Amino acid sequence: MNKKDIGLLILIVVVGAVVATINPRFLLPINLANTSNLIGLFGILSIGQAFVIITGGIELSVGSLIALLGVLFIDLIANHGMPWPLAFMLILVLGGIIGLAHGWLITRLKLQPFVVTLCGLLIYRGIARFYTADGTAGFAFGQNFPTLEFLTAGRTYGIPNSFIALLIIMGVTWVVLHRSVFGRYLYAIGKNEEAARYSGIRTGRMVMAAYVICGVLTALSAIYFAMYTRSISPASHGNFYELYAIAAAVLGGFSLRGGEGSIVGVILGTILLQELQNLVNLLGIPSSLNFAVMGGVILIGVLVDQQWDVFRAKRRLNRATHSAPSI
Amino acid sequence: MTGNGFTATGGVNRAESMPGTIDTSSDARHQAAFLSLHDVRKTYPGVVALDGFSIEIRPGEVIGLVGENGAGKSTLMKILGGVAAPDRGLIRIDGVDHDRLTVENSLQSGIAFVHQELNLFENLDVAANIFLGREPLRGGPLKLVDRAKLREMVLPLLKRVGANFTADTPVSELSLAQQQMVEIAKALSIKARLVILDEPTSSLPLAETEKLLGVIKGLKAEGISVIFISHRLHEVESVADRVIVLRDGMLAGTLASDAINHDQMVKLMIGRALKARTNTSEREAGAVALSAKGIRTAAYPHRTVDLDVLHGEILGLAGLVGSGRTEFARVVFGIDRSLGGELYLDGKRVLLSSSADAVANGIFLVPEDRKLAGILLDFAVAQNISLPNLSAHSANSIISTASENTTAEAQKSNLGIKAPSVKTRVGTLSGGNQQKVVLAKWLAMKPRIMIFDEPTRGIDIGAKAEIYRLMQALADTGVAVLMISSDMEEVIGVSDRVAVMHEGQISGILAKDQLDQENVLLLAVGKSAR
After folding, report:
1. Neighbour-count burial of A83, counting CB atoms closer than 10 A to its CB (0-12 exposed, 13-18 middle, 19+ buried)
2. Residue A84's pLDDT band (boundaries 50, 70, 90)?
3. Class of residue B484 by CB neighbours under 10 A (exposed 0-12, middle 13-18, buried 19+)
4. Looking at the partner chain, which of A175, A191, A196 has a beta carbon nearest the beta carbon of B378?
5. Contact between A60 and A119 (Cβ < 8 Å)
6. Which residues of chain B lie closer than 8 angstroms to A185, CB-CB?
7. Residues of B with CB below 8 A from A182's CB?
8. What residue ranges are annotated as transmembrane (chain A) (predicted)?
9. A246 falls in which pLDDT band (50, 70, 90)?
10. CB contact at 8 A, B181 and B195
11. Are the Cβ atoms of B398 and A184 closer than 8 angstroms?
12. Is the ipTM of this structure higher than 0.90?
């Protein structure tokens, strides 16, 4: 954990303490479980987004993918009788293929990530709505998938399994991003793609891999979301979720220019965002103000962070000029 | 105002103020100079870029300005453009003396530049480019552009440069020569009295060059002065009234119209006797390490490069900036795909589809632009050094920091990298030490072919000497070293052989006994060596 992460953690604790003082329900097990479930769901897709942002890219189609893949998953197991483990794998592979397609368009055909994934956002949402004829995808009465439901929406010792899944994914991706050769390459590419290329790194492949990882993690969270809501209206399911992920990354110290950020940071960002959502509910703030509160906090957070950097740079400069020998 | 005894008019005084002048009359000489520099000196840390330089420019005079890379031409341009302030000396415009010019001074005095890299907005049309920021406006709060008036203003300018395109053509659709005409029209639009053309023909095909030279003559006929900077000496010969030769920041000589010829220019450009070769090694070069056959690059798609680099030699690759050397190196390092041709490594054909392939084959490159391509400024020294070789520092693709640091420490002491620790961010190091980090990352692996692109640009003398020593040591161990350099002293002092490139192909290869400055220069401008 670096200083920024600790600052964010302190902010999370302080906000939590304030909310808990005003409304003690914040600390009720049921509320904590619900919130951590949401942290799990959003955390998984935010980690996916983090891989892409590290390379200096962006993935805007996350929300639409959550709708499309969720609809497909429910349709496969509820209406086509496909065994759920098979459907589960199929959806993950599909997410990976979509990520690969994005990465290919971006690295080989040199399209801008923003454009490629914006088109994805529109296309997948359209297909999802067409697929269900704008209807709602859900399970028939009495349809049960006990194991799947336990794994996705169940709890172990009161802890939502989605949150446990997030912890496992966090552990794995932390090693990948912060300890592996691949992770080092991603940071190098994000910092200076040209220099990475001049060091013999196959930058195109690495960037594509980042989009594939993002696609797979998005697909996984799509299944979790589908099992959480149990019914999906494809016109609204997953709307703006890509922005939650980007916001979490930015709050967690990522630079949208690439090369900066950590797994711990993006998770702390996710936790803060969900805490804010919870705050809006618990403090009786009109839920229509939800986004405004989030936007305001992110803006203030980024401003403080940036001003802090300016302040530190100035201090360093002052120190350097004072300690320099006079000529 | 002339209290320093320096007069702005021609004749005896001028000859005095310009040692080495070979003065004969020219028709421009009857008119007084409207712009003159006197005894201008400009230094940058560690370099004297221009020293004791004087020049007078009269209306309607075409001055050819020649000199090697680094002779002081761009410094002179910067001073005239008001971008750089001279340390000493005087700039006189229309009888008014200035210590330095500001950009506004320069513009108001009618000094216009046409740079080698054109500054046009490709997405706008010709008229919009010429009057950018000075558009005629209709009245009213919206300040709409008066398109009719704009057209009216642009048409005569285009006519004067003999343009064969219309005012509403988007610049992106124009050829390079046409774009230069737009730049010249832009210069005319600010009522330029002096147009400075920096290497305008270096990337033009012959027919277009002729056209541009015609435009220059047209300017002259209108009484507009031109400074024509070019490496193409025959063009200078054909268009200049007077040629000024710069060498090491000093005026090497002036040639009046009837004294302008190719040999004179080359002689003045070289002038000094070069320091003795620093490469005194007696090593014997081995077999062919890298053989390029018919390589074509995007810079000169119709020219081919054929070149052999031997084991245990330093092959200098000389040539003018823009002659296609870097593009060739990028192909050999797998960054760019070649448009044709074959590469052989120790006699075996290799296909390089990426830099990773080149690295796997032991072909390493130290790029020209260190900060852009050589290093990651935000990474630590150790992380920079290990980057191309992470597989050697990892088990099951998990990086061992200890292994990285050990290698980095070894390289740090081996190359004498001055950094507090191998964990220091490279961005905080000096240029020379940054360059050593770039070297270290390759030396930590096993090079077969080492390509250096301008290895000592912008670094201090001490670090330079160490880098030369390292290059010699590499060659001694049998590595094939290819060194691209525009620094004549470096090319001649360090290389075992020198290949010279001219407009996308090798114009000649000089063995040790033919290696002198004149031969390199002759080949670089497309003539044959003596």
Report:
1. exposed
2. very high
3. buried
4. A191
5. no
6. 390
7. 397
8. 36-53, 60-78, 84-106, 113-131, 157-177, 207-227, 239-256
9. very high
10. no
11. no
12. no
Q: Where are the domains of chain B?
A: 1-12+29-110+193-272, 288-524
A35-62 average pLDDT score: 96
pLDDT over threshold 50, residue B267: yes
d(C-alpha A235, C-alpha A134), whole Å: 7
**Contact (CB<8Å) B388/A201:** yes
State the nearest Cα–Cα gap between B238 and chain A, in angstroms: 42
In this complex, do A259 and B378 lie within 8 Å of one another by their Cβ atoms?
A: yes
List pLDDT tens digits, range A104-148.
Answer: 999 999 999 999 999 999 999 999 999 999 889 988 877 888 899
The pLDDT assigned to A298 comes to: 83
pLDDT at residue B400 tops 50: yes
Contact A242, A121 (CB under 8 A): yes
Q: How large is the C-alpha radius of gyration of chain A?
A: 21
CATH classification for the domain delimited by B288-524, as one of 3.40.50.1000, 3.10.20.90, 3.40.50.150, 3.40.50.300:
3.40.50.300
| Cβ-proximal residues to B82 (8 Å cutoff; 6+ apart), any chain | B100, B101, B102, B103, B104, B105, B106, B107
In total, chain B counts a number of residues equal to 530
Q: Which residues of A touch B376 (CB under 8 A)?
A: 188, 191-192, 195-196
C-beta atoms surrounding A115 within 10 Å: 12
Of A179, A182, A202, the CB nearest to B356: A202
Q: CA-to-CA distance for A58 and A54, rounded, in angstroms?
A: 9
CATH class of B1-12+29-110+193-272: alpha beta
Q: Are B171 and B180 in contact (CB under 8 A)?
A: no
Instruction: Give the mean pLDDT of chain B.
Output: 85
Domain A3-289 fold: ABC transporter involved in vitamin B12 uptake, BtuC (1.10.3470)
Reading the block at residue A189, the tokens are 């590419």
Mean pLDDT of B110-117: 83
Residue keyed to tokens 């040790």: B512
Residue B28 has pLDDT above 60, yes or no: no
Q: At what angle do helices A29-54 and A62-74 cross, to 10 degrees?
A: 120
